[in-house]
Design a protein that fits this description.
Blueprint: H1 2-14, H2 19-35, H3 44-51, H4 55-58, H5 60-72, H6 75-83, H7 85-104, H8 109-123, H9 126-137, H10 143-171, H11 176-179, H12 181-195, H13 209-229, H14 238-260, H15 274-304, H16 309-333, H17 339-357, H18 367-392, H19 400-438, H20 451-454, H21 462-495, H22 511-520
Length: about 525
């Protein structure tokens, strides 16, 4: 009996055959998917001009991808159990690659938004599947290192996206931010097809149509509420009222269905794990903090500081380097240091970076941006890996794919909500501050005729008034950006007490045997 137990533990420790090649293949898919969340950010002005879109319309190039991915992510667990993880992986990679090619050849706004929706639909499963597979092919004692590697792909993609997107846009064209996925997608598909061998029988699990429909409608209506609220003056618009009501009602029906159905769309037992629930909620706030800053900084540097697309990308690189260093360092610390202390350190650095960004000015060099980027990258790396490790520490291997889908969904909703909220606040605060700046500039104001003012602009000419309006708008936008960064600082501070709800992970009973059985699925 003891010999059998030792044999099982030994087999679990060895991991799955072809582990290196499987890891390379799924990491290619992870990087490809995560890269597309931000690689188009710096190319948006070029895409906008190419398809003749307004500022409001062009944001759908970003949000359509995020919304589609958020809606389809919870479906990953059911599909993997129904038709097999390998087949879902292959279809997702192939569909994502084809959709990327279609985005690259799109000739109108409608086409590119439609193809970005397809990208999101097919790409939704890539992140949770890659996370679940990495956990399964590595023994429990190496989960920290596995999550560090996975986190590097999941986070470095969005962080390095602006740099790569800027270079491709400036040297080739904006279409290459999508064409770049083709060789990566082909390589990932080939590796998954050759090296992942899944022999498990497909689970005949009924599909909860009502549960999935209500969740999808809730996510879609919530995103429309956030995106349309700013332009429609929020609750003064009937459209926004309807979207908010539909989102709230659909989420209520989903919760009721999940609590009462025999086989709900989302397994209720997942929410009995305290660490998983806390980490999932925590991931929502991390999505807000990470993706909001990634969405705000490129237009800030290009529009206010006058940086080129390529230079904007280069200034963004230190953030990625900080994350890269932190993730691989924390991979060695997980299991040796209390993960809550690592998370606290990461939150501290994230708060510090938000404070540094709140001190930005219009006359600063690029060094403060790079320093804040490194600080933010280090904080992200120290948060992401232990959070992922903690979330899945006590989840049984059989439920990892579904758990990964929920965990990713929470982060996606946070990122989508964060981008929409921060962008709306930026626009509103810019208008508000602009009104305050110009209301005292009148012909009877002596300051308007001061020598240092009159030498710069003539308030009696249209050119002088236009110049003054441009300067006032620039100053107002700078203040609005600083307000957003301060809000991110407060979100970080308010999320910190959630660490008190987390408990150090303990290996569940029978974990070695489950790990061995899971590894066997890839043999």
């Amino acid at each position: 009996m003891a010999g059998a137990g030792a044999s099982v533990r030994s087999r679990a420790a060895e991991g799955a055959p072809n582990r290196v090649m499987i890891t390379i293949s799924i990491m290619l898919a992870t990087v490809m998917s995560s890269l597309d969340t931000t690689i188009a950010n710096v190319a948006l002005p070029h895409i906008q001009g190419s398809v003749s879109a307004s500022q409001e319309q062009i944001t759908w190039v970003l949000t359509s991808y995020i919304v589609a991915a958020a809606i389809m992510t919870p479906l990953t667990g059911w599909l993997a159990g129904r038709i097999g993880r390998k087949l879902v992986f292959m279809v997702s990679v192939a569909g994502f690659t084809v959709a990327s090619a279609l985005c690259g050849i799109a000739g109108s706004l409608v086409e590119i938004v439609l193809f970005r929706l397809l990208q999101g639909l097919f790409g939704a499963a890539l992140i949770p599947l890659s996370q679940a597979v990495l956990l399964d092919i590595n023994p429990p004692e190496k989960h920290g290192q596995a999550m560090a590697l996975w986190g590097a792909g999941a986070i470095l993609g969005p962080i390095l996206g602006p740099a790569l997107g800027g270079w491709l846009t400036d040297n080739l064209s904006w279409r290459w931010v999508f064409f770049i996925n083709l060789p990566v997608g082909i390589a990932a598909f080939t590796g998954i097809f050759i090296f992942i061998r899944e022999h498990k029988q497909a689970e005949q699990r009924a599909f909860d149509v009502f549960g999935f429909a209500t969740l999808a409608i809730a996510i879609g209506a919530f995103q429309l509420f956030l995106d349309r609220g700013q332009t429609q003056d929020w609750f003064s618009s009937v459209e926004v009222q309807i979207e908010c009501t539909v989102a709230a009602l659909s989420m209520f029906l989903f919760v009721v269905q999940m609590a009462t159905a025999k086989r709900p769309f989302v397994d209720v037992s997942l929410f009995k794990d305290g660490n998983f629930v806390t980490a999932t909620v925590f991931g929502f706030f991390i999505g807000i903090l990470l993706f909001s800053s990634l969405a705000l900084l490129p237009p800030f540097m290009e529009n206010l500081l006058g940086y080129s697309v390529v230079y904007t990308g280069l200034v963004s690189v230190p953030r990625g380097l900080g994350s890269f260093v932190a993730m691989f360092a924390v991979g060695q610390l997980v299991g040796r240091v209390d993960v809550r202390l690592i998370l606290l350190s990461g939150l501290g650095l994230t708060a510090l970076s938000a404070y540094q960004m709140s001190q930005f000015t219009l006359v600063m060099p690029s060094m403060p941006i790079m320093v804040a980027g490194v600080t933010s990258g280090l904080g992200t790396g120290l948060i992401f890996v232990p959070l992922s490790t903690l979330a899945f520490a006590t989840i049984s291997p059989a439920m990892r794919t579904e758990a990964a889908g929920i965990f990713t969904l929470s982060r996606n909703i946070g990122s989508s909500a964060g981008i929409s909220i921060m962008t709306a606040l930026l626009s509103r605060n810019t208008d508000k501050v602009h009104s305050g700046l110009v209301e005292h500039i009148r012909p009877d104001n002596p300051l308007a005729h001061a020598p240092y003012v009159s030498s710069m602009m003539n308030f009696t000419s249209e050119r002088g008034l236009a110049l003054f309006d441009a300067l006032a708008t620039q100053q107002a936008a700078m203040i609005a950006y600083v307000d957003d960064f301060r809000l991110m600082l407060w979100i970080t501070v308010l999320a910190t007490p959630m660490l008190l709800l987390m408990r150090p992970p303990k290996r569940p009973k029978g974990a070695p045997k489950e790990a061995a059985d899971t590894h066997a699925a890839f043999e």
